[in-house]
Amino acid sequence: MRQRSSKVDLHIHSTASDGVLTPSEVVRLARERELDVIALTDHDTLSGVAEAQRAAAGAGPEVIAGVEINSEGEWGALHFLGYYVDPDNGPLRERLQAMLDARLSRAYRMIRLLDEMGLPLDWEEVRALAGGESIGRPHLARALVNRGYVETTQEAFERFIARDGPAYVPRPRLSPPDVIRAIVGAGGVPVLAHPAHSGPAAVERVPEFVGYGLRGVEVYYPDHSPEQVEMLLGLCQEYRLLVTGGSDFHGPGFEEGAPLGSVYVPAECAERLREEAAAFRTQIAGQ
Ligand code: AMP
Ligand code: FE
Ligand code: FE
Ligand code: ZN
User: What is the CATH number of the domain that holds 85?
Assistant: First the structure.
């Protein structure tokens, strides 16, 4: 018998950011894999959510409105997931729009650096490849592969566009408290994404983030070891945080993340998350 726990995936990307399947294709695949609940969590945008929810209407799965917002600083990269956010919330929309604009100008500057290194790319070609409004380094990596400059997107990162690479340009990012508060302000539930992936500093700062309004930790994740899962479950218990999990699916055959629905995520994670979001909405309505 299939385990009930295999039917939830709360971390998924689509063409609205750097995934390769459209939101409708993600929903179709989720249905094929018999998922009951998915969350679309594109980078800095909620623009894929409406399409996914339309595609899922009637036949399922349930599609949670989500977003992934990265913050970065001297401590390294920290990613946050926001669940059940209101896509029409003004302040959140403004913040996300500022980040999308910054992504555009940053991609443009990276293309100029690559050009100076003898790796010309066409701006329109990269825009077309990105498709949506959230343009990121994975799109540049794919453009470099398409031109035959590198064999794989991984090679593109390693040689040119990783954080210490010669064509890397940083982009302005919100600080962790600003990310958490923007999600809470939009009625959403903020969760620390793949903390083990982000290094020990991420875990050490969880108590501080709880003070800003953090409500959960992504415990089940492709490269989290059983020991890390145990440690994170303990952390969630200590700080009364929600436990979430997902594949970080970016598309079939794409190096980052894992296949859709492939990560063990207990079904109760989605139930607790839904209850938490509902309780939060009631609390806001009562204020
Ligand atoms: P950006 O937000 O445009 O800076 O791109 C960050 C995204 O690039 C991450 O969410 C990952 O999807 C991907 N990424 C970052 N570093 C690497 C790496 N070393 N190898 C492969 N993909 C990476
Ligand atoms: Fe990504
Ligand atoms: Fe991430
Ligand atoms: Zn992700």
Answer: 3.20.20.140
- Atom number, ligand 1, closest to the C-alpha of residue 139: 3
Q: Kindly tell me the sign of the dihedral angle through the C-alpha atoms of 98, 107, 190, 236.
A: negative
Per-residue pLDDT of the chain (287 residues; tens, 9 = 90+): 444 445 999 999 999 999 999 999 999 999 999 999 999 999 999 999 999 999 999 999 999 999 999 987 666 789 999 999 999 999 999 999 999 999 999 999 999 999 999 999 999 999 999 988 899 999 999 999 999 999 999 999 999 999 999 999 999 889 999 999 999 999 999 999 999 888 888 899 999 999 999 999 999 999 899 999 999 999 999 999 999 999 999 998 777 789 999 999 999 999 999 999 999 888 888 87
**Residue 107, SS3 per DSSP:** helix
- Ligand 1 centroid distance, CA of 170 (Å): 12
Output the CA 194–ligand 3 centroid distance in Å.
Answer: 7
174 domain-assigned? no
Cα-to-centroid distance, 243 and ligand 3 (Å): 16
| Residues spanned by the domain of 127 | 100-161
Residues 77 and 139 in one domain: no
DSSP 84: S
Residue nearest to atom 2 of ligand 1 (CA): 136
Tell me if 32 sits within 8 A of 24, measured CB to CB. no
- Counting the structural domains of the chain, the total is 2
Ligand 1: residues within 6 Å at CB? 18, 43, 70, 136-138, 154, 157, 162, 256
Q: Where are the alpha helices (DSSP H) in 9-89?
A: 23-32, 49-56
In angstroms, the CA 197 to CA 165 distance is: 20
